[in-house]
Amino acid sequence: MASIAANLVGQGKKSIFRSHRNYLDHVKELKNQVPSKPFFFFENRQQVISLEAKRLRSRMGLIVIMKNEDDKFAHCDCLDFLGVIIGNKCRSVKAQEAMKYVAGYTIAIDLTARNLQEDVKRKQFPRSSVKGFDTFCPVGKFIQAKEILDPHQLSIWLKLNGELKQHTSIIILTLSNYTGSTQNMIHKIPELISYCSGIMTLEEGDLLLTGTPAGVSSISPGDEVEIGVEQETNSSIKIIDQIKFNAIQRSDGLTYDQLKI
Q: What's an example GO cellular component term for this entry (predicted)?
């Protein structure tokens, strides 16, 4: 089960479900209302770029849309996520049984064309043109479920050009009541799976992005992006996975001026 699911998500052949507004500090950062129930939207399968797949090594970069006006680049934001990979087909799963359907985890970056998003929000249009660009969801390696002691007790972090932008440390939580740790998801993984599977069937290899903490960061071509996930074991911190790559300029496709509404 684990190897099949890992291959499916690594090749970008399954569905991506993106949980929105699932960390309190990120909700406050964007001045949004705290959702009483999980909120999902679909993302394009071609967004997924596996940084573990050798066949994709030559494409290890983010795509940044070029804006026509004054040769400026579109305002593109990146966020780090813990991804859950579904191991078996399921529908209408109860929360208390949901973790049985988890094959493993991955770390992922979700990108947003933020200035285009402002256009879309004003017109109340779907988000497809904001988040659906190829390579807008780089993912790390497949982490088997048994390697994670508790997915709600993890630290995830994001660095931009070496500067720490997002850090959901359990230690920071203990010392200063920080609200971004994976244990501070508004809706925990079992609830996310139960809610989503109550709407539609989840398939083996589907990727569920569980939300992001505060620390929205804007990127431009040439920027170096690095994310990692850690867990505490026997009073020591173990890095489970980390990925690093550079943003590159998009060489084809529509520009921001051609896309804006």
A: mitochondrion
